[in-house]
Amino acid sequence: MTESRNLRNLRNLISVRLDATLAASLERHCARTGQTRSQVVQQGVAQYLLASSGPTLGTLAEAILPPPGTPEPRAPRRQRLREYVRAKRHR
Fold this sequence. Notes:
Elements: H1 2-11, H2 20-33, H3 37-52, H4 57-64, H5 77-89
């Protein structure tokens, strides 16, 4: 059972060459945050792929919809008065 699990993990294994400066920055970051190099690289690849895949539904919605907590625009004064009078008649 563990042999098949190890073989599956090896299929996803990749090697990355980093220049000395980038490797040192990665080591410092890992020491500061407590993350492994693998975790940092996985997050970086995931963020890169997300950013390069184009807009998401969430970013499109943010561009179109008003921010949360924004009050809805009020109806024109004449329309509000008309609705008020109609409501008062039906009481």
